[in-house]
Amino acid sequence: MSPDLTIDAMSNAARVLGSGDTREKLHALQTVSDAVDAMKAALLAELGSSNGHEADGASTLNQWVRNQLRMNTTQASVLVRNSLAIRDLDLVAEAALSGQINAAHVQAFVYGIRHVGLDVVRAHEQALVAVALERDPGDLFTVVKHLKDTLHPEDLDDKWEKGMEKEDLAVDALPDGWHVTGFLNTLTGAKLKQVLDSVSAPHGKEDLRSGAERRVQGLDDLLSSILANGMPDDKGVKPHMSVYVGADTIAAAAQRVQEESEHPHRTPDPMPSDLEPATLTGHGHIGPHLLMYLLCISDVTAFLMKTGGQWRQDQILNVGRTHRLATHKQRQAVLARQRGICATPGCHHTHLEIHHVIWYSRGGRTDLDLLIGLCTRCHHLLHRGKLHITGNAVTGFTFTTTTGQPLRRRRRTHYHQAA
Asked: How do strand 371-375 and strand 388-392 relate by DSSP bridges?
């Protein structure tokens, strides 16, 4: 594999180190570090193809890396696995060898090759590389896992069933209190997390308790409330478990479950890649069998959507200036639009409050496209002037800091595919 891209990155770093400012030097050094990591993986792929590691008495590439490059077992394993992705994925290799993506990004592609297959990753390689160039490795891993969950939902149901086999909960008395241990299945754990999130939110900037203190106190308050009055509600919405799923996904899941019951020994076909898997709030994607089970025991609320996933606002959900607080139906629509997650980029809290993007006190209307769901912390940040939100649900919301900096991570360089 040609080292030209890595050499270019090294030459650029040498130039910047001689004349650039401190920030430019750090960016250049990181780029060349990422490029060198990729070049090592590429050379290791060549070494493995020729069995050159055997010349030094190493029976495997991992052993050669540990002995010759003096890496520990984990470092050696990552380098060897990455060498396969660099060898088999041309666009990934080009982005990595130029230092535009790092070794952690390449590991996400390795995960994709192992779990959805090389051909599938190649079919989506251009789109995945575009994500890698703009987002951090964690976001790329989420996209790759989403692809896996979409094509192989049976794995999600397998995890659900295995989790039920391991479930246990023990509350043992000790001299200084109670010791709680156990493992919860997908549904029970999601219920517990939803409840704890709703009762352990901070009570404003004066609340200096740690997260552990708030969770324990919230659980204590909840148990007291249950014993006295039953479950509390929040503006008419009681804490509950929510699943968000499209009608087409429900139909495909039902057909798949029926076919599996009629032909238990036949390997099911992958689910259509254009269907979004069902999502259990606070947990993630769930498989067809669990979805069908939940449909049997749950209430269903329908929301109308446009093609392409854009939410359609119906006039019945708009109340203009006649109500200050969002109606019950509007709250449900906002929570569904956000999949029960705080709208602030990078925040994953699920106990949400409804905010008027144009404040009601400043003439804002209680209309669905001008309402947004924020966790208690982000809502407090906004009203303290530390967070600003503009836009609407139709064209999209924009989040900025007090200095006008957008709340969205982007890498410093952009990738252009070679002609």
From this structure: unpaired
